[in-house]
Every structure is written in C-alpha cells, then in structure tokens.
Amino acid sequence: MKGPYNTTMGGSYGAFQTTEWTVIDYIRSGDHSSSTVLTNDLLKKYWKPVYCYVRRKSFDNEQAKDLTQSFFQEIVLKRALIEHADKSRGRFRTFLLTALQQYMAEAHRKQSSRKAKPKGFLLSLDELRPTQMPEAPAEYSPEDSFHYAWAAQLLDQLLEEVETKCRTDGKATHWQVFHDKVLRPIMEGTDAPSMEEICRRYDIESPDKASNMIVTVNRRFRATLTRHIRRSVMLDCEVDEEFQELIEIFAKGSAR
Fold first, then answer.
1. Last residue of a domain, one of 133, 154, 189
2. Do 255 and 244 share a domain, yes or no?
3. What percent of the chain is predicted at pLDDT more than 70?
C-alpha cells in the first residue's frame, strides 16, 4: 500500500488486517499529518453514499450538497465521529449510516444552512452534478440508495484497477475481450457478441483461447474485489457475507 497506510500499526498482521477499522485506529493514535491524510481518504470514500442518501430524502441537489457537507463537518469532524467509532458494532459503513440517519432526523433545521467546510481538508462539492452520482432504482429507500452508491463506487474502482493491471501486464486484449463479451452487455443491457465475433474482432486463434482470457480477467476481478472487501471487515468469515451483500445490491438494482 502507498502513503501512510504503509506503517507499523499492524505489526505482523499482514495485508488482511489493514482494514478500515485498523486505519481508524491509526487515525486515533497517529501523528497529525498522517491522520489528516487518512481521514480525508476515508471520508472521500463515503461522499457519494451520503449524498445519495440525502437526495433520496427528497432534497434537491443544492440542499443535498449542503447537508452532506454539514454532516461531515458537524458530525464526523467536530463531534469526532471517527474517534468514537466502535468496531464491536460491526462495519464502519453501518456505523456511519446510523449517524447519518440520526443527523437527518433533524434535517428540516439544516435545509437552509450553508456551513463552511474546513479549508484544504474535505473534498469540495461545488461542482457536483446529480448525473455524476450512481442512479439507484426509483423504489430504493434512502438506506438502500446509500448502500447502492457505495457498491457502485466500489465497482467503478475495481474495474479501473483491473483494467490498469491488465494493460500494465501486457494483457490489454484480455481486458478488451472481457469488456466486450461480459462487461458491456451488463452495463448497457445489450446482447453479448458471439465468441466467433470476438475472435475475429481481436484476431484470436480460437474461441477456447478467448474463453480462457475471460477466465483470467474474472479471476483478477474476484481477487481484487476480495482484497477490497477485506479492508471493510474485521474477520475472515465476514468476507463472504460482504460479497453476498454486494451481489444482492446489484441484483436488486438490475431487477428494476
């Protein structure tokens, strides 16, 4: 890992133990500069889920931006939510959502407030557009929208990482085959091309070889997904549970 994640905070724990909770522990005990960077990274991860939750509460774009910024400034930072987070309560994502639900219970008092965000610390939402947010199904509750936005953001990050790694490793054609045969039909709701068409398109000698390319990328995607999931849970047995929740989130979204 890069930057302040590469510390001795985990001792001999290894990569699996570098979870959101161990990062939070480091924020509590680390030096100011590293803690600031880690906190900023952690909050950036949850901007979209929080914003989408607020939007589904029937606030317009500008109101949702104000409330999102106010939540992070007033609750997460001023009230030191990260320092008070309790790993015994489960995932940090669930802990944050609970705090957001409590905050929004008084949202009618906040609608017109335009709090100043800490300079140089939090991501600015000034240029945010609703079209930049993951679009959850219309029937989703605010809570479902929160989880959907988190999952969609994670998926975008995973695909970008896998594509970059494939191209870096000289497997650009592997990625293109996976993209055209698997990814694009899912994302665009179109029919997948035949393996014969894929072979002609990329000058691949046989459908079997093209299929093996897809298997390779699928394995990379699953490995990358597992690595990311392990950062958000504390126990090995929770990985499958989190993975299943991701499947359910997207399955529900695709059924609209």
1. 133
2. yes
3. 70
